[in-house]
Design goal:
Layout (H helix, E strand, L loop, with lengths): L2 H13 L3 E2 H8 L3 H17 L4 E6 L2 E6 L4 H8 L9 H13 L2 E2 H8 L4 H9 L3 E6 L7 E5 L1 H7 L18 H11 L22
Helix pairs in contact: 1-3, 2-3, 5-7, 5-9
């Protein structure tokens, strides 16, 4: 492993969060293409040698994380319980944000047909969506988008990997959105998101 690979590895390990490729390029003093090449080498090395770490590509960022094969050991040592599954209301809301972002809460409620303030707040608390600005209209409502946590959870590197959403009518729109989220449940993602009727989302009808 060369010094450049080691430098990227050290930065990502110390950061503990996603780091923009452009920032890595600036700090290390090489082009972004070179950073991406080195990151790919690290990814291949970790995977081939069954190392305990992985490097994820999250849009224009990189992040070091633990390998999913060892999630059971990590949960035990950190004494963490498996997080509860998302409810149908939460998945509907998450799907709307994922496919139509940036969106306002009013838009989400228009699509779902129910008040969604509780669910939007719950998704923010879990780090799956975040506020990304305000519309320049009366009241200046907040607009929301998905986060790096969403990409990691869904097992994808970019929003372009979301399955295409078919043209939908008002009557079948929600069903199509549900189907789209179901298609994201890959083995790599660990099926961390699924419909679960037995939850306490306040805006579930």
């Amino acid at each position: 492993m060369n010094d450049l690979n080691s430098a990227i590895e050290a930065i990502l390990f110390a950061a503990g969060d996603s780091v923009p490729i452009a920032r890595l390029s600036l700090i290390i003093g090489v082009g972004e293409d070179e950073v991406e090449r080195c990151a790919k080498e690290l990814q291949d090395d970790y995977s081939f040698n069954r190392r305990g770490m992985r490097i994820l590509r999250l849009d224009n960022k990189l992040q070091m994380c633990s390998a999913p094969d060892y999630a059971g050991y990590i949960s035990k040592i950190l004494e963490q319980r498996k997080p509860p599954m998302l409810s149908q209301a939460a998945l509907e809301t998450l799907a709307i944000v994922a496919y139509f972002q940036p969106v306002t809460r009013a838009y989400i409620e228009q699509v779902r047909g129910v008040d969604s303030s509780y669910t939007v707040g719950a998704l923010q608390e879990r780090g799956l969506i975040e506020e990304c600005g305000r519309l320049e209209v009366p009241g200046r409502p907040s607009v929301f988008r998905t986060t790096d946590v969403f990409l990691r959870t869904m097992g994808i590197s970019s929003l372009t990997e979301l399955p295409p959403l078919p043209e939908v009518s008002a009557s079948e729109g929600m069903e199509k959105l549900k189907d789209a989220i179901d298609k994201l449940q890959t083995p790599e993602a660990g099926a961390q998101l699924s419909f679960n009727e037995v939850t306490g989302d306040a805006d579930e009808e």
